[in-house]
Amino acid sequence: MTRKHRLLLFLIGAIGAGFVYCAGAGNMPPWTQYRGPYGDVIAGLAVFQRHATDTVNAITYDYRGFDTLGEEFMLFSAVTGVMLLLRPEKDEKDASAKEPRNPASFRDRAALSETVQVFTTAVFGLWVLFGIYIGTHGQLTPGGGFQGGVIIAAAPMLLYIAENTDAFRRIVSHPFVELLEGFGAAAYALIGLAALAVGVPFLTNILPLGTTGNVFSSGTIALISACVGIEVTAAFTLVIFEYLREILSREKNQED
Amino acid sequence: MLAHYPYYIAAWIFLCGLYGIVRSRHLVHTVISLTILQTSTYVLLLAIGFRKGGYAPIFADIHPGVVTVDPIVQALMLTDVVVEATVVALLLAMVVKAHEKGGTTSPDDLRYMRG
Amino acid sequence: MMILGTGLLTLIAVSAFIIVRTDDVTNQLLGLGFYGLLFALMFFVFQAPDVALSQITVGAIALPLMIMLAITRMKHREAVNRAGKKRS
How far apart are CA A229 and CA A223, in angstroms? Predict the structure, then answer.
């Protein structure tokens, strides 16, 4: 099938699907006039039932907790897949030993100024702190483990940008990161199993709920959010490292 | 027309993403088109749950009982964003591997993978 | 507020088409980062701050970063292969 035929086939399908969709969308309730009962019911109840002021996170980590568990393991298995696919193969290692030390494409940059290097190191701490703040206040204000985790996982890239490659390599290739990833995923499942041990259904909020508005409130919501944060931090750090592994090992070769 | 505007936009973005996948000459282009295709679901979910004059469903500084927009579709979108990231990570790893094994990034040249 | 939202939706529809039409992957990547930020803005306008935050972190940091690293890795591999061929 040539390109032209493929595009023509797509066009016919797109016009047909678009026509049917538009005919159906005309019968949807109009935009800006939400009328389903579920959202209103849960928005009215969540604060009193779970003592969490952020309803969205209460739904994600509690009412729909089982769903989020599946999503968590999806992330876990995706990272495992990335690691399996991008692992260094044996003959590749031999090839990288033989290769010339300085290919032209990696030489054409000027050295970074010291001000930038010092400044990024200072920002690194603030960056991680901000990520922890976002991650631990998920039950009160917008945020939560997932967002905080991605912010923290992006922090080592600051060091890489500032050409502090040694520190970057030490952080992202540490075996502790893999341990953290497993810990985050397992802790989520164990919190769910703890509820079974007490005699209530899986992933029930069994911890004391605390005062609404306190950081240590909302029972398992805050705890699960923290576990998800650990898992996401480790997962994205691992993915970044797997993509950079080859380039990092070459830079190390050049320094030696 | 304007009463259902976001629904039409969602369909448009979906078809745009599909068009990108059909016409792509580079596997990374295919992956980016797929992420654009996926963003159409955000528009659709957002349009379903939105209510004019509704507050954000965060009761940190508003009184419980105030009319808000639907928090359930927002939780669904949150899941969707995470899934998007994981799917892209896995697909890109496959693209990198296909490039290493086959030496090509064009979807049309992947015929060597046929059994 | 509704006018802002409608305008943003139109902008998103237009930029989706432009990104899909772009053939150079690096240009497309820059467009994708901008597109992610547009979505974050739209989530704020439509009262979804939670999703906006995760869209900023994923759409504007994680996705472009991963795609950029993948492209870099493929270019790196090509450079190594070319250098290896030249020597042998």
Answer: 10
